[in-house]
Amino acid sequence: MGMESSAESPQPVRVVMQAVGGWVGRLGRIWVEGQIAELNRRGGTVFMTLRDPVANVSARVVCPVRVLEATAPAPQAGARVVIHAKPDFYVARGTFSLLALEIRHVGLGELLARLDRLRRTLAAEGVFSDARKRPLPFLPTTVGLVCGRDSAAERDVLENGRRRWPAVRFEVREVAVQGDRAVGEVMTALKELDAHPDIDVIIIARGGGSLEDLLPFSDEALVRAVSATRTPVVSAIGHEQDSPLLDLVADVRASTPTDAAKRAVPDVGEQLQLIRQLRDRGRRVVQGGIAREESWLAGMRSRPVLASPLREIDRLTEQVTGLRDRGRRCVSAALARAEDDLAHTRARLLALSPATTLARGYAVVQRSDGAVVRSAAEVERGETLRVRFAEDSITVTAGDRTDDEGDR
Fold it and tell me: What is the Cα–Cα distance from 236 to 322, expressed in whole angstroms?
């Protein structure tokens, strides 16, 4: 329940501080995990700053020397610990602190289990997905480098990068690469380099170390920060066997800082050799194509139609003339055969024609209606008949019928 107060009836400072102390005291004893950022001894008391491993939050811890010495080995600055403490509020100064009752080191197995749980969680969210990884630029003009101060990793990256491509430039940010300040400084440097308009790729490099030394590079906040960058990131933490979570989220994972320089910066000698090979290959392809076209052109020019065009015209003229003569012979032979057939048909027609028969002295007797008289018995006495000869005809009147048997 809140304290009653108003502008006319304010509460004294001592009352407010005593109330806050009472509320803090009701929290009871609690187990707290963090990383020791500072550790100072003053007489029989040890004053520590316990920092949250993820957020930028810390708490003051007051620890009797006997409690610190009861932990073997004695914790040092940078150690991950779990403290059983009692919250305490110092009313006289209005400060909050934790009174340490017991200190325990965070075991390696527990750290590995926590890292595995974090890895599975981030993987389920797609933070490590290959679909979001970006390819490195072929020829970066400026490379951002996050590394330790005066570290071997920095020398390896700079020397190998400049040896491979002397024109490449580096923007170096030296930070703490272990301890309680590492995560914050690396994230600050990463954000600064990612916002730089000239930087094409960022390398985060550190030499080898123990699991505890490399813990900052498995920090969830740092992993998510790398995932959110717009610039491709190369992770070069520790040695080949080391695998912090930063390796999984980075666009490219390098086994060592030297390997990171090789992956980020192309070798000028190798590229020039590749250009020479491609140029020679292109020259061979072009020369081969020209040779094939020249061979085809020579073959076309050697053909008779191109070698001697008039000879081909003469040959075709002879062919046309031969076909014309052959056509004429065929037509003449066909006309001759047709003429012979016509003559034969005419001769047969003349042989069978009634006019030919009449020309030999015969005549045709017809009635007035044109009917041919075939026998005298068909004619009546006095009937008018027409007698047709080869050239002309006459009209006669039938008389008596006579029998020609005596004339035979």
Answer: 91
